[in-house]
């Protein structure tokens, strides 16, 4: 009987829209380098790395705005935002210009 009640509870949770936290992955890759990499995940403080090791990857799990910004790009670099295995944003720079990937999810 407890199993049936648990199954009904799980079904109701699915029907009412209770969803699992998203799996968010930020990736920076390529043959270049960057002087400064700044990234922000929802609910977290902005973090800045100087002359970071590349490739770079970080994970997060909250809805909101995700941003990765590269300044002082030398060579070709690509930033990507991947949510639940689906790439939602990608940007590439080979000019030395600043590079930004930005994506917002409804909270």
Kindly describe this structure.
- It contains one helix and eight strands; from the N terminus they run αββββββββ.
- 17% of the residues are buried.
- Helix content is 13%, strand content 51%.
- The strands form two sheets. The protein has a four-stranded antiparallel sheet with strand order 4-1-6-7, with no helix packed on it. A four-stranded antiparallel sheet has the order 3-2-5-8, with no helix packed on it.
- It is elongated, with a radius of gyration of 18 Å.
- The model is unreliable at 3-16 (pLDDT under 50).
- The protein is mainly beta.
- It has one domain: Immunoglobulin-like.
Keywords, separated by commas or semicolons:
single chain, 107 residues, mainly beta, Immunoglobulin-like, 4-stranded antiparallel beta sheet, 8 strands, 51% strand, disordered N terminus, Lipoprotein, MmpS_C, signal
Oligomerization state of this entry? Answer: single chain
Largest sheet: 4 strands, antiparallel
Number of strands: 8
CATH architecture: Sandwich
How many discrete structural domains? 1
Q: Give the neighbour order of strands across the main sheet.
A: 4-1-6-7
For this structure, the CATH topology is Immunoglobulin-like
Total DSSP helices: 1
Helix content: 10-25%
Keywords: Signal
Protein name: Lipoprotein
Signal peptide: 1-20
């Amino acid at each position: 009987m407890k199993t049936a009640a648990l199954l009904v509870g799980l079904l109701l949770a699915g029907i009412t829209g209770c969803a699992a936290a998203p799996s968010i992955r930020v990736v920076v890759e390529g043959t270049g380098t960057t002087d400064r990499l700044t990234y922000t995940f929802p609910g977290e403080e902005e973090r800045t790395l100087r002359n970071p090791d590349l490739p770079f990857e970080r994970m997060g799990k909250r809805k909101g705005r995700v941003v990765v910004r590269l300044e002082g790009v030398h060579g070709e670099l690509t930033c990507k935002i991947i949510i639940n295995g689906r790439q939602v944003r990608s940007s590439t720079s080979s000019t030395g210009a600043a590079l930004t990937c930005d994506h917002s999810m409804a909270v």
